[in-house]
Amino acid sequence: MAPPTPRLVIPIDLKKKPWQQKLPLHNRWHPEIPPVTEIKTGEMFRIEMVDWTAGSIQDNNSAIDVKTVDLSTVHYLSGPIRVVDTDGNPAEPGDLLAVEICNLGPLPGDEWGFTAIFDRENGGGFLTDHFPRATKAIWYFEGIYAYSPHIPGVRFPGLIHPGIIGTAPSKELLNIWNERERKLEETGPRSLKLCEVLHSRPLANLPSTKGCILGKIQDGTPEWIRIANEAARTIPGRENGGNCDIKNLSRGSKIYLPVFVEGANLSTGDMHFSQGDGEVSFCGAIEMSGFLELKCEIIRNGMKEYLTPMGPTSLHVNPIFEIGPMEPRFSEWLVFEGISVDESGQQHYLDASVAYKRAVLNAIDYLSKFGYSKEQVYLLLSCCPCEGRISGIVDAPNAVATLAIPTAIFDQMG
Amino acid sequence: MAPPTPRLVIPIDLKKKPWQQKLPLHNRWHPEIPPVTEIKTGEMFRIEMVDWTAGSIQDNNSAIDVKTVDLSTVHYLSGPIRVVDTDGNPAEPGDLLAVEICNLGPLPGDEWGFTAIFDRENGGGFLTDHFPRATKAIWYFEGIYAYSPHIPGVRFPGLIHPGIIGTAPSKELLNIWNERERKLEETGPRSLKLCEVLHSRPLANLPSTKGCILGKIQDGTPEWIRIANEAARTIPGRENGGNCDIKNLSRGSKIYLPVFVEGANLSTGDMHFSQGDGEVSFCGAIEMSGFLELKCEIIRNGMKEYLTPMGPTSLHVNPIFEIGPMEPRFSEWLVFEGISVDESGQQHYLDASVAYKRAVLNAIDYLSKFGYSKEQVYLLLSCCPCEGRISGIVDAPNAVATLAIPTAIFDQMG
Amino acid sequence: MAPPTPRLVIPIDLKKKPWQQKLPLHNRWHPEIPPVTEIKTGEMFRIEMVDWTAGSIQDNNSAIDVKTVDLSTVHYLSGPIRVVDTDGNPAEPGDLLAVEICNLGPLPGDEWGFTAIFDRENGGGFLTDHFPRATKAIWYFEGIYAYSPHIPGVRFPGLIHPGIIGTAPSKELLNIWNERERKLEETGPRSLKLCEVLHSRPLANLPSTKGCILGKIQDGTPEWIRIANEAARTIPGRENGGNCDIKNLSRGSKIYLPVFVEGANLSTGDMHFSQGDGEVSFCGAIEMSGFLELKCEIIRNGMKEYLTPMGPTSLHVNPIFEIGPMEPRFSEWLVFEGISVDESGQQHYLDASVAYKRAVLNAIDYLSKFGYSKEQVYLLLSCCPCEGRISGIVDAPNAVATLAIPTAIFDQMG
Amino acid sequence: MAPPTPRLVIPIDLKKKPWQQKLPLHNRWHPEIPPVTEIKTGEMFRIEMVDWTAGSIQDNNSAIDVKTVDLSTVHYLSGPIRVVDTDGNPAEPGDLLAVEICNLGPLPGDEWGFTAIFDRENGGGFLTDHFPRATKAIWYFEGIYAYSPHIPGVRFPGLIHPGIIGTAPSKELLNIWNERERKLEETGPRSLKLCEVLHSRPLANLPSTKGCILGKIQDGTPEWIRIANEAARTIPGRENGGNCDIKNLSRGSKIYLPVFVEGANLSTGDMHFSQGDGEVSFCGAIEMSGFLELKCEIIRNGMKEYLTPMGPTSLHVNPIFEIGPMEPRFSEWLVFEGISVDESGQQHYLDASVAYKRAVLNAIDYLSKFGYSKEQVYLLLSCCPCEGRISGIVDAPNAVATLAIPTAIFDQMG
User: Fold this and answer.
1) B38 burial class (0-12, 13-18, 19+ CB within 10 angstroms)?
2) In the listed set A322, A354, A369, which residue is the last one of a domain according to the structure?
3) For the CA atoms of A63, A64, A68, A69, what is the dihedral angle to 10 degrees?
4) What Gene3D superfamilies has UniProt attached to this entry (chains A, B, C, D) (predicted)?
5) In this complex, is the C-beta atom of D330 within 8 Å of any C-beta atom belonging to chain A?
6) Does residue B339 share a domain with residue B308?
7) Residue finishing a domain among B264, B294, B322
8) Residue B11: what are its φ and ψ, rounded to 5°?
9) Any CB–CB contact under 8 A between D15 and chain A?
């Protein structure tokens, strides 16, 4: 007998607002956000999701929505999903949750996406000191291809992937996150010249009740207030996976996530039609709504067996990924290089971030010689299937980073 | 009529010491190191080269040579080569030198290489705080494949490439280098906690007469002393290309180097049979002697036309690369992730170097569960065709870096 | 504004029989089968289709349905579709119809397929003299992967494609087809020893009223009888495209079809989840229902401009294809060879069909050493992404054909 | 200790004629041609070889040499090589000889090759009825690339491979070959209309003393006369491997050859810089001199264990191949199709040779619209990395064959 069609466990109705969805969304990581559904290992299930801003960015030519978007409410995630085995026993802390991405795509009837440069005063991005103003490109999909009226002459196949997929942190892990990020905010590199040169963005995004959405937990209740003050923002990737933005995490990939709470409490969102390594403009992928068809297995005790803590506690681990076999073939690549000397001429020590910044700037300058504005290229390099490599990280004082661009994106005009 | 066999312009006799070679080698960047030969645009020519240590590391089981190697003498480069066009007019500052890699390989009769972890007290490496002791793996070549008696069960095809290829800096550019690196040495991140955690290595390698070799310029003469005190070390990649360690720069690739002095004064060396992105153990590629067959073109005024300065002067540029079409097909990749939280649990701000370090450590820990020592895996990840990616560089405070390893390297046992 | 969701021009309701569908299907090629719908160039439209047998083969363990299937009714096609340009002018004979495959897949809720060996007495196949009995394998889909309870230990990603896509023939072309195929039936290789050795299958499938379905033309009417007696079977690929079974014709591909009648009258069907080159067992792909999202352009006069007739009339042409960029990466291939000596030891002259037969038989014999029955391997080689190559076609008397199998299909067990 | 440089067991001096070489060449298959050298399993050894005509075709613009070449003397092979295991025991009939291609390339100083259309009266080719006149293209190599002054605008990377590699047949196998090929000559398809349409070439090439070279066996002696009258020509691939012309058999590939005589008596030759599937113009690869570096293993009794006879005796087997992982990446392919209807409009029954002929003719016609002569395209499709596929072999009466051409060959101008 054929297996049943993937069970739709989290439906999205794009005509409704996020808070009107049948199953409530959430935008924070916390162990006490209750699961909205339950799945069994071995079954294939379908999750639908809004785009990371839940419709705040519109399909039009104005970037006013980008400039004013309320970033306290992102990312809107679908879940949490409680995972149990075929005997009904939930995933337990210390297990590994293996999640296979069987299928994924845009939501039918919503085949478009956006890439944006955030305003320096509202979010910023990797090159916010060079490109401080809000800008937007809309992309339309033709099957595997995306094209944009805002960046003509470009068309490329997408490697669709979820930007965010992760399990709920335990209370202990959450405390670690909040403590280390608060410390950065207080004492961190804001005081350092090199950071001022690089960025004027917030150093971290600490818990706040503003914009907080906690799924089934009613807004404004004492419980909500307590949890909102503890719950981690979804901006950075962390030990639980989360916003890892791995551009090749498409069909056929498998993710081994550590389990920190009973039931694993899997959440996902931030679907990307395509992303370049680094997602440099921050809202840099082709952001869209979408669906995922997943299958889970529980590897009992797998976290202890396969992951080695990299820090003071046993919780300092990272997921492992197997990349799927389907991807576009590209024949020719144009490669730009950067070294860890910044735009003021200052030498940094083996700093791959500075080196990558310079590689991206070099690519932008070069490509803008062919009729594009620099903003267009910045948007393009954020979302096209370009590869950002750490080529050398040992030859003091210069890290060497490279950005490789498949030239076929420029001539695949249907 | 068939074109002639590539003209051998720089021969190497491996039975001789570096200073006994027919054409003298050099190990510094300086505009006044005289060319040892001249080539014309359009002709194919052959350059031979010693390994980067000129034979200091032996094909045996002891790492004592690694521990005691004199790093003041590296890298031994072949060149400089003066480039003139078919009318005999030399490349000029402001031109671009397009160098095509037509062919390359190990020197016949010398089909072996080495990968080493440098001692913390002599060179160190990306993970020197974890792996402080000198270690060595010898690799033997069987055509496209390398295998090592020191890392059994592994065999992979190499993407042979020169670690170093570059043009001579002008005096002005050299001054910029020396000034910014000196400043780093004096006031740089040595004072910062984050750097102490990461490394105990020298911040930069400033000019020094010790170990200096300047080609045709006689050791110990006043000219030699003056130049040696100005000439830049070859360790880092810089505006002139140099030690860029781009692992895919193999057959069929093309490099567009800026020209800073009359004749371009092209030098190359540091041949690698294979390298992983990052070359993490520092002496991390499969280091070997070798040959290059090259063809050059001069793009007049191309530096000004195609490269955009990224800094206070018009000299702050980087080369551009086109990657060749030949590479091994790999089907399945295992991907490890790191975020910019260091091993002490401290949060860093969008630091791709810290994130990549954690990704590499995660990979080492995982693979060491399958019967390898951690040192073996560290060596392996330095030289096998693994990809180091900057996956996310915008989601404050965590940069996300990934290390992707082709699983086929573990089962291609002949 | 985002382009609208692809317009569904031919819907299929899988709960209904073929003759109950909203728009009638057809299973013959004829210029007078009336279009069921019309599309404009530039618009994206969606076609749904039944599997080629319209549900005759069931998802179960018995091959009785394969043994008794009525082959006079295949292939059930969706269409014809009349194509007009944005001014409303139809495609004209002599034009080229460029069809881009934007998206395609199984019909939601019907994610399974079948591969079958036809009985020697009912359809047969490439190796019917070796495998005369009806056999069946059912495949289930998990996103990009297919697996079969009937061929355990195998799992591979599919390259979904339509087996059949073509335009309607003109009356003149239809006459050419019928005449040449009738001639083959009458005087053809049936008399030749070599063919008797190879096959006991019908030489051609001439027009017949039995099982004939002509869309909007009512069964049994005089018009139906006339057309049924003229209309070509859909079994072979011909000048109009049709059953070309090109396994890489997946997402992002583009097909340039000659236009023989006003409006082009495009039809398509016979969706495959995956197919091996040659589709050797005849019902050899993973056959399924499915959908296509297409976009058409008309290249006016393109047939005359780009296609060169290869025969006595200007109609002897073939379509041209551009293959899309998305396909699974495979690293290792096992290759079996055949030469044009048949199993009786008889030498044939540069006969690629005989050579390929022997290559397939060699592969079956080899793989059956690893625990599979030969029927299982025959089914597998029909539908897995293996490549059938004409390696040498000039070295008299032996053609050399090869069958290359990606070894990863044997170990990608989820 | 590093393994020694591959031992040169068969040297070639290109300044000498074939009969002046240090070790004599041979151009026939026979069990009694004595080995010229011996190698041990596990050692890497080097074989040099002349081009298949031993210098008969010159690097110039005239095709007179092609027109008049003496085809009774081809192919000049290096060998036979006796293979023994590390205990000195030779390979035995019934064993498999595993040959790994570690490295290969043109002979230094001879970096050029040729592709030719043979004259209808002297060799012919797949399309000799369309292109009856001798034509020649010379190719020059720039590292991995080949370009030709006779086919401007084209440049592509080569997948270098030996066209011929095989073991000596036993007397019994030789008798089988001679008998079946003689039978074809006497009673074969020459009588059939379809063959006359296709070809006017010899049906087989039976043993003859003319041009025969038997290595160490002195010309004209009674032994030579006897053997020459029995020895098989090297034109077709057969059970012993031989002229299999598998274009992907490059670096890192492995060939499992059946052993028919004591010592295996391995011979090889006919080096190709690049070949298209089918090698359609007969002298169709880029033919060159070259070297191979090989490593052999003996799999005792492997022929019986892994190969299944496909005919009346246990000798009716074929080699198995593993294809190496290094190949050029191509992104975009243009695909031409053919069906088994010939140029006269006659229908053939599932004849892949006819279908492939039509696909090649379609490609030639299409590409000749872009400024090439048809002869140029015919030469190009013979030697560029195009793929010839058997797409459908079951849809009576039309086999469908396709020819896929990577479009990058047209724009990779250095």
Assistant:
1) middle
2) A322
3) -50
4) Acetamidase/Formamidase-like domains
5) yes
6) no
7) B322
8) -85, 150
9) no
Q: Within an 8 Å CB–CB cutoff, is residue A329 touching chain B?
A: no
Residues 381-410 of D with CB under 8 A from A: 406, 408
Q: Looking at the structure, do residues C269 and C248 belong to the same domain, yes or no?
A: yes
B345 has a chain D CB within 8 A of its CB: no
Task: For residue D285, count CB atoms less than 10 angstroms from its CB and return exposed for 0-12, middle for 13-18, buried for 19 or more.
Answer: buried
ipTM entry: 0.94
Residue C179: count other Cβ atoms within 10 Å of its Cβ. Answer: 12
- Shortest CA gap B313–chain D (Å): 32
To the nearest 10 degrees (0 to 180), the angle between helices C374-383 and C352-367 is 120
Q: Do A371 and A318 fall into the same domain?
A: no
List the subunits that have 3+ CB pairs under 8 angstroms with D. A, B, C
Residue D65 lies in a domain: yes
Same domain for A178 and A302? yes
B144 contact A CB<8A: no
- Kindly state whether residues C349 and C259 are assigned to the same domain: no
**Measured at the alpha carbon of residue A39, what is the angle toward residues A36 and A45, in degrees to the nearest 5?**
100
Q: Hey, are the CB atoms on B311 and A344 less than 8 Å from each other?
A: yes
Tell if the CB–CB gap between A332 and D331 is shorter than 8 Å. Answer: yes
Q: With contact defined as beta carbons under 8 Å apart, do A59 and A244 qualify?
A: no
> Diameter of chain B by CA atoms?
67
Together in a domain, A280 and A353: no
Task: Give the number of beta-carbon pairs within 8 Å between B and C.
Answer: 18
In a domain, D256, yes or no: yes
What are the start-end ranges of the H helices in A259-343?
302-306
Closest to C45 in 3D by CA, of C297, C248, C300 = C297
Count other C-beta atoms under 10 Å from residue C41's C-beta. 17
In this complex, is the C-beta atom of B109 within 8 Å of any C-beta atom belonging to chain D?
yes
C414 pLDDT tier (thresholds 50, 70, 90): very low
H or E stretch covering C383: helix C374-383
- Any domain includes A1: no
The neighbour count for residue D39, using CB atoms within 10 Å, is 21
How far apart CA D12 and CA A304 sit, in angstroms, is 61
For residues C280 and C337, state if they share a domain.
no
Q: Is C120 on the interface with A (CB under 8 A)?
A: no
Domain extent at residue D343: 333-410
pLDDT band at C280 (very low <50, low <70, confident <90, very high): very high
Rg (CA), chain D: 21
Q: What is the pLDDT of residues B355-404, one digit of tens each?
A: 999 999 999 999 999 999 999 999 999 999 999 999 999 999 999 999 99
Distance CA(B242)–CA(B290), nearest Å, equals: 17
By DSSP bridging, strand C28-29 and strand C232-233 are antiparallel
Question: Nearest-CA neighbor of C29 among C272, C205, C284, C202?
Answer: C205
Q: Rounded to an integer, what distance in angstroms lies between the CA atom of residue D292 and that of residue C9?
A: 59
C43 with C171, same domain? yes
Residue bearing tokens 């069931």: C58
In a domain, B328, yes or no: no
Q: What is the CATH number of the domain that holds A276?
A: 2.60.120.580
Among D237, D284, D366, select the one facing C398 at the smallest CB separation: D237
Angle between the A352-367 and A374-383 helix axes, to the nearest 10 degrees? Answer: 120
pLDDT band at C203 (very low <50, low <70, confident <90, very high): confident
* DSSP designation for B162: E
Binary contact (A2, C140; C-beta < 8 A): yes
Alpha-helical regions (H) of B108-221:
171-187, 193-198
D332 Cβ under 8 Å from any chain A Cβ:
yes
- C-beta of residue D399 within 8 angstroms of C-beta of residue D354: yes
pLDDT-derived band at B89, boundaries 50, 70, 90: very high
* Number of domains comprising chain D: 2
- Tell me which of A239, A353, A370, A403 to substitute to probe the interface with B (most B C-beta atoms closer than 10 Å): A353
